[in-house]
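seq as requested:
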Amino acid sequence: MHAYRTHSCADLGAADVGQTVRLSGWVHRKRDHGQLLFVDLRDHYGLTQIVFQPDTAPFAAAEALKLESVICITGEVVARAPEAVNPKLQTGEIEVRASTMEVLATAEPLPLEVNADRDYPEETRLKYRFLDLRRDKMHANILLRSKVVASIRRRMEAQGFVEFQTPILTASSPEGARDFLVPSRLHPGRFYALPQAPQQYKQLFMMSGFDRYFQIAPCFRDEDARADRSPGEFYQLDLEMAFVTQDDVFQAVEPVIAGVFAEFSERRIDSPFPRIPYKEAMLKYGTDKPDLRIPIECAEASDVFAGSDFKVFAGAVAKGAVVRAIPAPGAVGRPRSFFDGMIGFAQSLGAPGLGYIQFEDGGAKGPVAKFLDQSRLQTLRERLNLEDGDAVFFACDKAAKATALAGAVRQELGKQLDLIEPDVFRFCWIVDFPMYEYDEEAKAIAFSHNPFSMPQGGLEALETKDPLDILAFQYDIVCNGVELSSGAIRNHRPDIMLKAFEIAGYDRSVLEERFGGMFRALHFGAPPHGGIAPGIDRIVMLLAGTENIREVTAFPMNQKAEDPLMGAPSRVSEKQLKELHINLSLTAREALAAEG
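struct tokens:
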């Protein structure tokens, strides 16, 4: 017989009655029924009920067992009495009557309960993550993640993609998020950077003659934590394809994403995914990450208020502001507190408030309605398909702020009015992103997305159009309001790249210094190519039904980018700093001294 187990704790059933078996695992629960002691034994696979009888050798030791101690038992499989059968348990028809027991490891008092789904402070859960991961929900989430990754690999390989690995130590990039820097011991004063994404390398694969690349790629960005983004590192399905158009990328990626979600969820998935231009998404949904489960579409209403008697909005529109209208289906009849609550919600986001109108009995009422004539009210009804019983809210501000507020109000109305469609994953492609945006802080034109994207219209567009009117072959996948991925058809011509970077304020020297390898490769025959990189963490987060990405990450950092389990980031010795040619600043030394 094996030293530790002949079966797992999920293996045994009625067919095994009469067998002598050996099981090992953790003490999940104990129940003392007087003459009998029951222990639920747990391993990676499941639970088996163990029975200890008073007249057997292990009974006294079993009475002293602490929860989460590790034991090995040998005993006979017996059938449970009919009234004791547990249909919810895989091994619920049997139990094992223990004849011997060995305590393999004793657990100290637990800082969090493993056998209960209680809430604990995040710091406690992360410091004792090894215990947190033993809990049913967390254990299932991490297993789900593994299965999702395996499924993605199978689906990618079935489409002819080949998996390659790209370097972890690379060069810093002037675009994107803040880099994690790694000092070089051999090259004083120089630094490597951990890759924010394998962007340049995957393009270089295409320029090297490979056709379809993918990788489950680790990415590193020194960003603040959010519920849907971990600080430090994350993983993505990174892929690139040669000789493709935007449609080719969609046709390759969509079956993979839809297939994975269908495999691991019973929710409805509509395919093909609708394609929504960026400009349309911002107007209708107030965001480029729309939750299409909410049946609300915003609309432009500046013209309705321009020159009207509602002087607050009319005056703002005359000075360049816009008005966005957000329908609230069926909101009429809600108490005044609902409307006050929506105004308070807008104020919590920094807005002065919201205007609103209620439509009922063929008329309109509310603090704004009396300032609009019937023609303007009718325009609102028709433009937003409003019926009696519906209300409409208004956000008025400069375009960017009004759009963002309208998007947030739309989302909140979906929750407050219980309009979010259940049991469905609604995907969409957001397409036609602007190539450039105006950076108000720097007072300059900047790339709005990926700087390596191909502008729509190519070199001619860059030379003849207002930069803010140029669109790019850039696209995102969004699901239920969560951005899963960004991608693009790449710029494969050096002349177009030079002009694109010149518009954003970078001359040739920047390309040669920061992107030298890729820029050189473009001069030796680069194929048209494109790709995308769906986030693994966010895919699993959606499938697991959680809104916090740390619930599907085995060993995440906290919101301060600290790892309470391992104690990272940690101090290093003066010897290590000297080897790396680093002197800590006075500020850093004072901070370390303050910590003690």
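Residues 136-158 form the longest helix (23 residues).
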